[in-house]
Design a protein that fits this description.
Radius of gyration: 50 Å
Structural class: mainly beta
Number of helices: 7
CATH topology of the largest domain: RNA Polymerase Alpha Subunit, Chain A, domain 2
Helix content: 10-25%
Number of domains: 5
Largest sheet: 11 strands, mixed
Strand content: over 45%
Shape: rod-shaped
CATH class of the largest domain: Mainly Beta
CATH architecture of the largest domain: Beta Complex
Length: about 425
Amino acid sequence: MQKFQSSKWLTSRPHVIVLSLLLAFVLWAVVVLSVNSTGTRTIDNVVVRIPTNGASYQALGLDIIDDGQTTYTVSVTVSGDRSIIGGLNQDSFTVTPVFSSVTQPGNYSLQLQVTKANQMQNYTIQSVSPSELSLTFAEVVTENFTIVPEVTGVSVADGYILQSIAATPGTIQVSGADTAVERIDRVVASVQLDQELSASTTVTGDIKLLDVAGNEIPTEDFRMDISQVDLLIPVYKEGELPLEVGFINIPEGFDTSFLNYSLSPASIRVASTEENISSLGKKTVGYIDLANYSLGDVYQFEIVLSTSYINVDSVEAVTVAFDESNLSSKKITVSDIRVNNVPEGFEVNVVTTAINGVTVIGRQGEVEELLPAGVVAEVDASNINIVQGNYSVPVSFQIPSKDDVWVAGSYVVTIEVSKG
């Protein structure tokens, strides 16, 4: 039998390669079995979550004063199986301050607590850095502010007018730390349009809080009941509205066209829809009672427009004055007193023999020519509650011979009623 020669076997190249591989495998197994599979890891930029509802400090009427830093982050160190901790990230933890030490307004260094987002994962939270968060607390106040529309870049087409922009809703409720709310000078609803308008439109405006210097205050420091509002931008067509007056107690056949009077202003600018402006007529501002007119009288009437129109000129009243260069007046005594429409079965006799001091006004030449006999006073018995006795009753006047003369004032006569 041939004897085994070890020296030759060990010097054989194939044999050496096989032996090296076997030794390498043994060494790898020893290392794997001897090294621990656990480790530690630090996850940075984990956000600290500060509750905005239901926190214990809010039950005390307190709120956090933020110095402008709206996000706080920490680093969390964990230990455990490398295959588990290797898959952790910033969302794997919940970091919150412990508010139990907050009992009144002031600055507090609050401990931070870290909990697992997935409680089923088997690893250990070693530490959080920094371990404390410094926060300042103040009393919470709530205040209502009027919202001021702030629309820029708006222009209107020729012949149109832009009216005051209105916000809906018109007020906003802002809650926050008292010192923070005190900084708010006004609240605006802001929008940039860069547009020419020829009709009303509604846009959405973003709420901005401004201090007294006009600097914007971050809204994150506050709780607001709204964040946007509707802004109505009213754009209307302009037009010229002529004004006029009317007359009452005009004698039969009397022509008022010879009366020369002026209105100041004679017209006003108004704004409304295209349809309304295109159908504009004259506006009667009031009526002049000729029966109560006296030379030298000046009238003033309030200009009242319907809600469909806007008084662009903001003129509230119109003044009416007469050019009396062609008018005159005088007093006469009227003795021709007649009774009309006497009910059957009654007799009406005029006790008054003449009405003194009757004022007549009219065209200058006709007033001068008018004789007392040309004026008739009339009692309309149909307007009287006819019973027996003596009564003072009003009279009206007729001037048959003159078209441009009338009687001004109120007059009465005494009548006697008896059964016929």
